[in-house]
Design goal:
The protein is mostly helical and 397 residues long. The chain is 83% helix and 1% strand. The protein contains 18 helices and two strands. The chain has one domain: Growth Hormone, Chain: A, CATH 1.20.1250.20. It has a two-stranded antiparallel sheet with strand order 1-2. Helix 7 packs across helix 15 and helix 16 runs antiparallel to helix 17.
Length: 397
């Protein structure tokens, strides 16, 4: 439960800027493209930091890395609220991204250690349902805090939640995770060989495409609803929650479905995990492409909801797949690599969308690109057909 609560706080701290973006834009006199860069400021460092963080977790263990990271990301959230310029806010978001990088890799490692193969889909989903709870029930909270205390007060209040997680983790998990590094063998893993592995290549390419649409919603959906549908901040907070509530249901649905396919039908674990991932990506792409051609707000919300549900069904199963196909001493490293690719796609979404909107004002292009990329991601996932063997990625050096 502490990991679930930490996941909720982790994601609220990522998306809170989306709701403050218009106020910050007006206060700091930012252009649309600057707002896009600011929305993506934490994502690029997050993506890159996943590479060393995965290795660091394999090397030092879970407890030290987790405690250090959450303290720093909470301080970064505090710093965002105290910022008085575009530059200082941008730097705070960069630090946030670096500090948050280890979290879901830690979750994958915990799942591999403590759960059997046919339990990992649901177990991974419990952790990865946190982002959907953050974006469904957290979005009205963010909007409420901004209305009540201004955008600065919102950041300060959310920083406090981060320090609450520090206390909970220190009390509940510290002794449990200290034994984890001792269970890992000392065979060295070649990152170069791991990156060259076909499974890793297709996994990363699929993550890049599928996360693009995922993070388009997280970063630009509130702005789209306010600018194109004329909603106020309060209404935007509640309506934005609807697709993400669907995501709350989708994450455990995908994980449970894959576990059932393994347990009851003796399906190969790779195939079982990929069924909800591939199907979800195809449905998500089909649903998002026509959105901006539709005037009806209710129809638009339905399509966003279908697309968010479908792409969210892949989240828990892909992290379970990381545990399934990785040797124990490489799960952190591979988890970091694949999450890096995940958030390269996540970083591109707000950045490219901001540039397109500033130059054309055309959401048709924005949604069309995301729909095509997530469908391509489905075909990339379909190319994954074998696990990563230790002998294929080990080194003597």
């Amino acid at each position: 439960m502490v990991m679930l609560f930490a996941a909720i706080v982790n994601y609220i701290d990522r998306v809170n800027l989306s709701f403050a973006a218009n106020d910050i834009k007006n206060e700091f006199g930012l252009s649309i493209s600057q707002s896009g860069f600011l929305l993506a400021a934490w994502i690029w460092p997050y993506a890159i930091a996943n590479l060393p963080s995965g290795w660091l977790i394999d090397k030092l263990g879970i407890n030290k890395v987790f405690l250090g990271s959450i303290i720093i990301w909470s301080l970064a959230t505090l710093g965002s609220g105290l910022s008085h310029s575009y530059t200082s806010l941008y730097i705070s978001r960069v630090i946030l991204g670096i500090a948050e990088a280890p979290f879901f890799v830690i979750g994958a490692k915990l799942v591999q250690i403590y759960f059997k193969n046919d339990e990992r889909g649901l177990a991974s989903s419990v952790i990865n349902i946190g982002p959907k709870l953050a974006n469904s029930f957290g979005t009205p909270l963010i909007a409420f805090l901004i209305i009540l205390t201004t955008w600065r007060g919102m950041f300060l209040a959310l920083a406090i939640l981060g320090f609450v997680v520090v206390l909970l983790w220190a009390m509940v998990y510290q002794k449990v995770v200290e034994v984890i590094p001792k269970k890992i063998n000392n065979t060295k893993i070649s990152i170069y060989k791991l990156l060259k592995h076909k499974t890793v290549f297709w996994f990363n390419l699929g993550n890049l495409g599928s996360s693009y649409v995922f993070w388009l919603y997280f970063t630009w959906l509130p702005t789209y609803l306010m600018d194109k549908k004329g909603l106020d901040l309060k209404s935007t907070g509640f309506i934005t929650a609807i697709p993400f509530i669907a995501g709350v249901i989708a994450v455990p649905f995908g994980g449970y479905l894959s576990d059932i396919l393994i347990r009851k039908y003796n399906m190969d674990s790779i195939k079982a995990r990929l069924i909800p991932a591939i199907g979800g990506c195809i449905i998500a792409g089909i649903a998002v492409i026509p959105i901006n051609y539709i005037d009806s707000l209710s129809t638009v919300v339905i399509l966003f909801t279908i697309s968010t549900f479908a792409v969210s069904a892949r989240v828990g199963v892909l992290w379970a797949l990381v545990s399934d196909i990785s040797p124990p001493n490489a799960v952190g490293t591979f988890g970091g690599i694949q999450n890096c690719a995940n958030f390269i796609g996540g970083a591109l979404a707000p950045t490219i969308s901001g540039i397109i909107l500033e130059r054309t004002g055309n959401y048709n292009i924005v949604f069309g690109i995301s729909g095509v990329l997530v469908i391509i991601a489905a075909f990339c996932y379909a190319m994954i057909n074998k696990p990563i063997l230790e002998k294929d990625i080990s080194t003597f050096f």
